[in-house]
Amino acid sequence: MEVANNNKLPFIGMELTKIGKRLETCVYRKTTNKGLLLHYQSHVDARYKRSLLMTMLNRAHCLSSSPDIFAEECDNLRGIFLKLKFPEKLINSTITRFIESRNQQQVRDVQRNAPVRIILPFKDQRSADIVRRQLSDLGKKINSDIRPVFTSKKIADDIRVAEAKSPLINQQCVVYEFKCDLCDADYVGYTRRHLFQRIVEHKHSAIGKHLRDSLNQENKDLTEQFTILKKCRGKFECLIYEMLFIQEKKPKLNTQSDSIKAKLFST
């Protein structure tokens, strides 16, 4: 077993260094290493000599945990290859191209991680699959992640939504009560139609006369002054409950408190 020495431990060509709670890695060379690599004046094709330099740079980049460590290893490689009679211009240009290519790769990776979303209308699944495949091919050519976002057409876009009316307005077949909000005048009645229709008609009834003569408010909106006393199932039930509520509340604006209906159903 091999233990760490001064928080450093060599491991398969790489040295691990413990700094606090984090680890740093760099290229490891034994003390007996003489830097014996391919000599530039050897009878080998020039492409193999350039490839050797690129290979050592790529190895250093993969094993270095930070840019500073990689820069230090580049200086070490520069010294090693100068001893092997590699031209300094070739060494410096190769290192520069390698660093630039890595920076461009990082930029492409960042762009690829941030997808470009295109909103398209949804026609059918077959068309959607074709568009998705075509955008994927285009993204590979320009090094971008292009993703389609399909939206379906809403029925509400074509159909005009009617103005919502309050539950009171849409009621029908009910016994209702009117209470004036400026005095104690009230009225009890019934309708089998929608209540809002009956409210409009009341502008010409005893309620309308009360508003014109007593309060001088002929065009006032009466909706908020009406309340439903009973929801009925038919005209006969409406007549019964109208008579009972008239007897109970004795509304001031009703002129039929002793009407035929009240006499027929009173006990």
Give an overview of the whole structure.
This protein has 267 residues and is of the alpha+beta class. It has helices spanning 46-63, 67-83, 88-113, 125-142, 195-201, 206-215, 235-249, 260-265; strands at 8-11, 14-19, 22-27, 116-121, 146-151, 172-179, 186-194, 226-231. The strands form three sheets. The chain has a three-stranded antiparallel β-sheet with strand order 1-2-3. Strands 7-6-8 form a three-stranded antiparallel β-sheet. InterPro entries: GIY-YIG_endonuc, GIY-YIG_endonuc_sf, HTH_animal.
Structural class: alpha+beta
Distance linking N and C termini: 111 Å
Q: Count every beta strand, where a strand is a DSSP E run of 2 or more residues.
A: 8
What ranges have pLDDT less than 50 throughout 5 or more consecutive residues? 258-264
Widest sheet: strand order? 1-2-3
Mean pLDDT: 82
Biggest β-sheet, characterized?
3 strands, antiparallel
Rg value: 46 Å
- Secondary-structure element sequence? EEEHHHEHEEEHHEHH
Give helix % range: 40-55%
> Number of helix segments?
8
Instruction: Assign an overall shape.
Output: rod-shaped
The proportion of strand residues reads 15-25%
